[in-house]
Amino acid sequence: MIRLLQEIFEKALARLGQHLTTYVPPLMVAVVILLAAYLVAKVVRWLILKAVKGISLDRFLRESGLSSMLDQSGRMRSASLVAAVAYWAILGVGLLTALDVFDTKLTSQIIESTVFLFPKLLTAAAILVAGFWLAQYLSRSVLVWAVNENIPLARRLAAVVKVIVGFVAVVIAADMLSFASQVFFAAFVIFAGAVALATGLAVGFGVRGAVQRFLLQQGERQPGEQEKSLFDHL
Amino acid sequence: MTDRILPEDALPAIDAIGAADIVIGIPSYNNSRTIGHVVRAAQAGLAKYFPKFTGVIINSDGGSKDGTREAVLSASVDYSRLLMVSTPLSGVHRLSFPYHGIPGKGSAFRLVFRIAQLLGAKACAVVDSDLRSITPEWIDLLVRPVLHAGYDFVAPYYHRHKYDGTITNSIVYPLTRALYGKRIRQPIGGDFGCSSALVSRYIAREDWETDVARYGIDIWMTTVAVAEGFKVCQSFLGAKLHDAKDPGADLSAMLQQVVGSVYSLMREYESVWITRQSSEPVDLFGFPFDVGLDPIDVNIERLLTAFRRGCEDLADIWAIALRPDTLRAVRNLASSSPSTSKSFHIEDSLWAQVVFDLACSHKRKPLERGHLVRSLTPLYLARVASFVIETKEMFAAQVEDRIEQLCLRFENQKPSLVAGWCGEDSATAQEFEVSHDSAPGV
Questions:
Q1: Is A219 on the interface with B (CB under 8 A)?
Q2: Is residue A112 part of a domain?
Q3: ipTM above 0.85, yes or no
Q4: Please, is A219 exposed, middle or buried when counting C-beta atoms within 10 Å of its C-beta (0-12, 13-18, 19+)?
Q5: Which member of A228, B18, B40, B96 has the lowest number of beta carbons within 10 Å of its beta carbon?
């Protein structure tokens, strides 16, 4: 009996030893890799922040309106953006390298999926950034036009344009990632339909008075009236 | 390469004429009602004042459907009634062509200048086709300084109603004067005279496909002449009476084309204007006299309503365009009680700062330029309202003094523009004098 127990215990110890020899060294290596990646990422971020002035990129971000879009205060600097991208990229590479040390089926799948998904992720991110920039640009165009033309509910009109264009960008990005694309598309169709219906109802009932006033004002602006002088200035 | 400017039938017509001394250009679009008078005035002016010169009148048309071109070609002058001292050596040629390119006054001028260049004209003048007050003397006043006094650019000087020319009075004249140091009173007047050297310079430029093709042409011509050191002068033409612009025309689009052109040229001629201080008078030819003018009514309440609405809805865009202290002062104006409309007033210093801030934003935000300048419309309307209220009881001379004060304010505040333009915002913030409390509300 004692011998049997001893055998079981020895086998358990052997298995544990085998597990330890199988997993602990890779785990330690993985931890070291992660730590190294973390340190390298920190150093690279620090170096970029110190070394890269990024004047041209700053100008591009400011002139394109991307800095104010990504950071409401509009004070985003290209150096911190580049440093953050480099930091997270190095950490990501470190994590994948650390996972690769284990050399298991699961880790291989994770790495494969990540590498396969990465270009798509980048593309989707670019689509989202471009889409939100376009949404902001078009919404501002609509806002300025509507205010200058004395169109009622100018800000809401601009907001609707912004949401629709932003939503289109999300739908395209989701489709790129094959992520619930049908759901997003269906949601978009429902949303667009709802906006059209709401606009119709609003024009029909809610803002009828406003529209009447607007049309009346437009009618009052016919030739021979006072406002023509404003256009007589050149 | 530049001959893509010319329509197919232009070259044979130019070859038939051979050469000309003076070219008068008249851009048009559906102006059959008024263009006959303008052509006759130009024809009489050439015959009466330049009988020994070969003159050509060119109508550059934007595709009129009301018989404008036919009106040009059929207009005739009875020379026997002109009381001419000498008989013209040759008749005045008249040509009418449709121009190519972006529809607009600038594209029309381009064709005129190109033909003038091919004809080897010594002087070229352009006049609007909707003028009711043009006389033969205008041709003399626009062309003679070029032919006989060596000037390259003759700007018009008119008497206008105190509420007419508000873009000129409130933005373009004070700004261009402060920038380039020349007191050209009507920089976007529309009727100019140019030398052959300046015409060649205009044609050689490559920015014809921009806002220059539209309403930006007038300020573009003036700025190029002044900034590039051409010899400039003004001629007093009397009153400018012309057809009202299309009431359906988009004011914000006009502002964008005119003010946007000023700002674009500021970038190009940065090295010229940034060092210039104060301003100097420009020679004035002609004999100034007082004239009767068409009355102009302005609906102040409507202007202020547009301003208040702009303050509510365009705050985000103004926050991009204006510095925080300028924006705060503008908001203070709008947030005051509407019952004080009759005393609404925008300080000159605040207005100058708005125009300067916008210039700096226009430089730094190339993708937002359209929004920024168009969003100026409600502010511009507020400035017009303020000006109308302030000058309601003033005579023309007093109004002119008032505009002079505004120009001096622009000149005095120019260092803040230079600092903002070069990116030294914080340094100039303290120099900015805006009395927030003294400004009565809307």
A1: no
A2: no
A3: no
A4: exposed
A5: B18
pLDDT digits (tens, 9 = 90+) for A206-222: 555 665 666 665 555 44
| Residue B441: per-residue pLDDT | 35
- pLDDT digit string (tens) for B394-426? 888 899 999 999 999 999 999 999 999 988 554
Of A64, A150, A228, the CB nearest to B244: A228
Q: Is residue B439 part of a domain?
A: no
Helices (H), B30-135: 32-49, 68-74, 105-119
CA atoms within 13 A on the CB side of B271: 2
Q: Does residue B356 belong to any structural domain of this protein?
A: yes
Report how far apart the first and last C-alpha atoms of chain A are (Å, whole number).
111
Separation CA A196–CA A191 (nearest Å): 9
Cβ within 8 Å, pair B167-A232:
no
CB < 8 Å to A154, chain B: 309, 313
Residue B375 contacts A where some CB pair is shorter than 8 Å: yes
User: What count of residues does chain B have?
Assistant: 442
Per-residue pLDDT reduced to its tens digit, B93-126: 889 999 888 888 899 999 999 999 999 999 999 9
**How close does chain B come to A70, measured CA to CA in Å?**
15
Domain of B260 in residue numbering reads as 2-285
Residues B132 and B243 in one domain: yes
